Batch of 2 targets.
Target 1
Amino acid sequence: MRSAKPTGKFSLGMFTLTIIFLYMPLVILVAYSFNNSKMMAWNGFSLRWYNELFFSSENLWHSFWNSAVIAVTSASVSTVIGTLGAIGLYWYNFKFKKAISVAAFIPMLIPEIIIGVSLLIFFAGIKLQLSLFTIFLAHTTFNIPFVLMVVMARLEEFDFTIIEAAYDLGAGELQALSKVILPAAFPGVISGFLIAVTLSLEDFVITFFVSGPGSSTLPLHIYSMIRFGVSPVINALSVVVIAGTVVLAALSRNVVKYMFQK
Amino acid sequence: MKGSHVAITGVEKYFGDFHALKSVSVDIKKGEFYSLLGPSGCGKTTLLRIIAGFEDPSSGAVLLDGQNVVPVPANKRPVNTVFQSYALFPHLTVFENVAFPLRLRKMENAAVKTKVQEFLELVKLPKEGKKLPAQLSGGQRQRVAIARALINEPSVLLLDEPLSALDAKLRQHMLIELDAIHDKIGITFIYVTHDQQEALSVSDRVAVMNEGEVVQVGTPFEIYESPSDPFVAHFIGETNYIGGTVTEVIGDKHAKVDFPDIGSLFVYQDKPLAVGDKVKVTIRPEKIRISSDKPSALGDQMNLLEGGVDELIYSGFQSKFFVRVSERATFRVFRQHVKFFMDEKAINWKDRVFIWWNDNDGYVVEVEKP
């Protein structure tokens, strides 16, 4: 009789394959960022692409700052709107509540390219010059449903009698909002903000349609560089971005931990 | 006496088609410990929420010291609530939870400190101020909720099934402490519960509710000993509830009633009765004595029946017997184990037994004139 005990060999194999499949490209990318040659052949270790990235890629850094500014501003605005929207949809009763909550989530399902085209037509229609500002508007628009969803999920988790308790103890509507609802929803608000920053930083399709001359973001800039062949500078840039992401993720985890488990 | 006099007059509440409260009128004295007792769905919590201001009555008034508070929003009423789920603010420490109402009033920091400490001591949690609610046990959370509800010095404290989430032992303990807090603070307590033991043990008066109506109001003693309604007789405690016909009226306190399948029994009555009236009588199982020996020298108006033990349940402090006295009539009888169980003469399953009780222990609940 054979033992029925699972050996775990299969799952271990699948796990290894998955890890290789996911991380191998990244490992190669990191390796090639240190390659001395411009070609794919390995030609010795060098930091020349990092040198070029940091000291002679002004256009690239310009796009990077554009991306950063748009990410932070659009994430902030969409976090405020999305949070208030979530609180409103969850706590208050009003006409067309159902319709509004469905409408708020639809942009998440529409293909980005359609949102991009429609925004372009809209901006052209109201004669708004394409610029960083239109990118900001577009990013804020597509970020709101995500923030709304994350904050709603958080609100659904907690016991709503705490709001009645706040009123009972003498709080007015604004005090209940600022002293009870917002603090309780805060972890959701933070995650919503971080998701919005990420989505804004990486967006290509929508940004492609609504960006104007001189208002390139990092993804757009990388795309334009790739058209003339993969420059190893992009490899170096990718490594910097990966490192930055890892540091940010670790940091935000610890910040959230610190704030809620002191 | 501190606290408010609370009068609820003709309060009706509809939720859509559902008639949750049917013209409820209740009068609660200053400083009284008043319970609203009833099964779930009887409207007791709705009534409490109307007093707190979380719901508006469809009609009727809630008067605090003679003033109608229905138009006053919840945050402006001198009434505070201890919620069933405690409803502590998860992001605030115990201290800040209790201090919440004081912070809203922008009270000075030093004054807040002394006052919060005073109330934490009242609920016996003087050292837990720095903890978060998640770090407390259920009983401790309950205490924080009570301190927070009392710190505004309301004139009425509403308690919505505050002990239902605690285990039986802790519940007993908290009940005693609630009673002590009530004695100390002296404000009006309105206590909602579905647990008759809780209601009977601490209340000055109890309003028994059923299907949106107040069925009986009285002291725990009155509610238990002289229920005015079959629902109350059944809902509070266990009972033998039997129907028969009056054959003789004895003085102004007693009567002889013929019960089909049982025979003729003496009962107590405080309502005008006449021969031929149909009556429903409640006899509490703990008032009935049981023995396998026939008792000697019973008084004139004692009731004595003979039967067989159909079933018996041993539950530590007492045993429950189901005694079949005829084909279609069974009595439940409780025997307290006042001595070591084995020292008493044993009564076993299927034994022939005698049960007897005083004429005063059968109480006429309902009377139907022929």
Target 2
Amino acid sequence: MSLAVSAAAPGTIPAPSIEYSQIAPMLVVFGAAVVGVLVEAFVPRGMRRPVHLVLTFASLVTAFVWTCVIAATSSLFAKGSAGHVAAMGAVAVDRPTLFIQGTILVMAIASVLLIADQSSDVSAFAGQAAATPGSAEERTGLLAGLVHTEIYPLALFSVGGMLLFPASDDLLTMFVALEVLSLPLYLLCGLARRRRLLSHEAAVKYFLLGSFSSAFFLFGVAMLYGYSGSVSLGAIASAVGTNSGRDTLLYAGLALTGLGLLFKVGAVPFHNWKPDVYQGAPTPVTALMASCTVVSAFGAVLRVFYVAFGTLTWDWRPVLWVVAIGTMVVGAVIAITQRDVKRLLAYSSIAHAGFIMTAVVAASVSGLSSSLFYLASYGLTTVGAFAVVTLVRDPSGEANHLSRWAGLGKRSPVLAGIFALFLLTFAGIPLTSGFTGKFAVFQAAIAGGALPLVIVGVVSSAVAAFFYVRIIVLMFFSDPVEDGPEVAVPSVFTGTAVALGTLATVVLGIVPQPVLSLANHAATQLFVR
Amino acid sequence: MNGIPWLTVAGALPLLGSIVLTLIPPVPANSAPGDVEARDKLAKVLALAFSVATLAWVIVMATRFSTSGPTYQLTEQYSWIPQFGVHYALGVDGIALVLVGMTAVLMPVVLLASWHDADRGATRRSVKSYFALMLLLETMMIGVFEATDVFLFYVFFEAMLVPMYFMIGSFGEGPRQYAAVKFLLYSLFGGLLMLVAVIALYVYAGDSPATGHHGTFLLSSLVHVALSPTAQKWLFLGFFLAFAIKAPLWPFHTWLPDAAASAQPGAAVLMLGVMDKVGTFGMIRYCLELFPAAVSYFKVLILTLAVISILYGAVVAIGQKSMKRLIGYTSVSHFGFIVLGIFALTSQGQAGATLYMVNHGFATGALFILAGFLIVRRGSDRIEDYGGVQKVAPMLAGLFLVSGLAGLAMPGLSTFVSEFLVLAGTFSRYKVAGSFAVVGIILAAIYILWMVQRTTHGPVSESVASFRDLRARELWAVMPLIALIVAMGVYPKPVLDVINPAVKATMSQVHVTNPVPAHPAPAANAAHAPGANSSHLKGNQP
């Protein structure tokens, strides 16, 4: 019927103009994901993994190179333009977005390296996710050597969603991106090969809480639509201050969308999912979530708060102050009691989200640029840290309990040394990337008048240093445990991820200027409106 | 910039040594014990060679320093992180130069004294890591004295903790993990508070016309930034707390005795002798020069803390049963003297305090190293386990007494000169503080002599009977320090000549002049109310 109408009156619904070249990086990743699904359907089982590997890495690398090319050469930024809103106002192409997308792609490549690693045991992923844990069906599946190669297209869909999430210039696109990035992650979380019940619990928890937060986000979008008559961020920004009679809608919408975004970031009080999910998910997937998802979610937070609510700074800043303080303190304090290395890194990730929030509340160019730098440096170190976690194994899989890590420095000094370097980075010791990042965000916060936030920040850093240092004590100063975990010889895949993390940590600590100026350059004109 | 980067090379030599040591390949697991020993020996000799080369370089560098030249000499400056206005800027004034010199002298000595610290006992530890960590620490310590950019200073100040943390935690004795973590957390906490002040200083500099509205960390620009008295007070507190923890000043000292007791003697010498000096050095370089108004506001409080440190450290030292803890507490007392000299704000007091830093490094270094030799022989650091060492090992006991006397500031030994200057400088402005501090000297006599008496005199205890006297290596480690203590006690002029211009520059930055003796006015100064808010101390005009 409708088809007939549009055929009858050509021109009444104009074809949307899509600037394909500008949004190509996302299209490449989504396209590869779709092809990956077809691979699952048509390629013989034995061939799937190599095909997926080529497809996944090729698409991610292509997307990264393309992003760099757009950032370096595109005429979008000629004559001091902040960028361009492509695809009929749905996708923003501006410098901060390109920086975030480039960062996500690098981290995604590193995380996919971990996902693809099958050398040390069989794989981190379950052979048959649908089989009941401990059942005969599971055992036959294991014996038959079944593997889920669907993880590659799932990861690609998720990465694609992450690329789109911070780039969305209207809230509906943002919601779609949020779902596209989340749904594959829910699935991936439940695919751990070892300790499958924990993994299932993580998946269900993440799914339920994530759905709630998505619903809140959508509800907020509806309110904002009611307030401004549009879902476009720019339109909401220009409506603010003009429709004074409907401020309730505005504030309710602000609160609900903010809630949905802060959930993805893992800010207090929406952080409860993080430890359980990080612990239960297969470690490579945790690496993906802890790096790429956090970067993407912060990108979206920055865009929404800086573009749509940029003139409401006085209204949201006190709230975000409280959130930032809570996030830093809760993350740092609760981490002290953790005994599982993945849970500990989850709480550390919460604390770091709090540190980034201190720069977000500055709502300034330096706030944006320092957040960008912090995200890049923190994400790469995180991938490296989780890569190390995958290597410390005992016969039942990864040895995640901290007591098993005692004396690791004596068994395997190089790996333990690298992990100690990552921990010192998280603690913010100078000459590591963590210090440069912390310095950048705290400097932006003080310049923005948030001195009390920074004082809370450094006190939390001191508290956080305690548990980072305790792991170092455990690894280097304690005697090895009896029949302690083996350290697997890293394969090329994991080795590359560890090396990338180490390199980024050292380089961004000692010569941070190139990346700092890149971030600063990306932030000078803020987001396109 | 005069072609040769003197200061960079001085810091880079030990770093190079550290890297070379790390690159020594490990011996295969199934090789004979002799191979391991040969490898360890190579590491030790290499480490010593690098530290001696550094010392030689620093000596040549010192001859290039002109006492009549500008305040900061041998300067180097390159942009490091332009985004934040951070420079790799080095330069030394007289104070920094003598401290760099002290570091370079102590290093070979400590390496010789710790020759067997890592491979002694039942559990062999990695010898090359221990010596590589020591050299790495030397790089950081030299860097922290040379930096003239606040950011660079902070980087060295914090990074310095990491090698020391591993030296205590991996190679120490007793409750080493506890001591290492306590040491790190205390220092890190202080450092992070300082970080807030550093960033705030940077933000203020960015708002100031004196820097052309460009944020900077260069000390030479920051001294021109006009700060409001309130801002000065807060920033001063941020810096001062970090330095007071580092120094350590009562009541921030509680980490020190634990760390000193758990560290190997060599590591403890570096900690007490050099690292902790960064605290007092920072007070002169940063607290005084950058925040003169805050200095006049807080000085009475700080002088009070300093006097408490002197007396408290001394009294608690008397009661100690362990030699290492005793020496740790004497250092709390000595650092009280240094802080007293700094905040008395007289040129005598400051020159004395700077000289005190150097002398304390040598005297406490010698005392701790000799105590270490005793502990190695007996396997215990409890004073009651010794007795009559004098009869068995006269050389060891004699040198122990000499370095002990240096610790209590015996005339003729270097520490007397500095303690006298500090007390004279304090007394000319703060009679009450000076009077209390003098009591510290009497207490020092008690704790030192009583310890020496209990360990080296009396009947020879059974376990001491088999002691052998100092070996050649041990003698080589201690003799340079004893020689320096005596030489600087007799003729301190060359060092004072280097220090004095720098002290004068600092004093003029704080806008202080010395009180004129035999004039009624100094009493009025001493009664200066803590609420006085003027940036000019009302010293008498000469």
